[in-house]
Amino acid sequence: MKSAIRITLIYIAVASLWILLSDRAVSLVTDDVGSLTFYSSVKGLFYVTVTGLMLFLMIRKEISVRNDVIRELNRTLEVKGELIHELHHRIGNNIQVILGVLGLETREGDFSAEAKDRIVHRLLAMRSVYDIVYDYEDMREISLRKVLAA
Fold this sequence. Notes:
Distance between the termini: 44 Å
Structural class: mainly alpha
Largest sheet: none
Strand content: under 5%
Number of domains: 1
Shape: rod-shaped
C-alpha cells in the first residue's frame, strides 16, 4: 500500500507541475488560438508519453521487488518443509526406540504390563497426533475432533 501511495503522490506532483508550467510556457510562445490548440495537443501527447513511461518504470520496479520477496519466501518454505520432514522422521524413530526399550524392560520384569501399556498408549497417541499434524499442509485446517479421535 505504501508504494501505491508513493507512486500516486509522484504522479500528482508531476501532473500538477506539468499543467501549470506548460500552460504558461505555451502562452508565452503564442497568442494565436490555432497555435495554442496545436501546442496544447503536442504538450498533452508529450505528457501522456512521459507519465506512461514513468508509471511503467515504477510499476516494473515494484513487481521486481515483490518477485524477489516471493522467491525468498519460497526458498524459506522449502527449507521449512525439509526440516519438518526430518523432524517427523526423527520423532518416529525415537518413539520406536522407546517402545522397543519398554518391550525389553517389561520382559525383564522391571515394569508392570499395565504401566507399560499406559506408556505405550501415550506414545502411540503422541505419534498419531504428530502424524495428523504432519500430513496437513495448512496448519489452520487441523480439526480438533480429528486429533482427539486419533
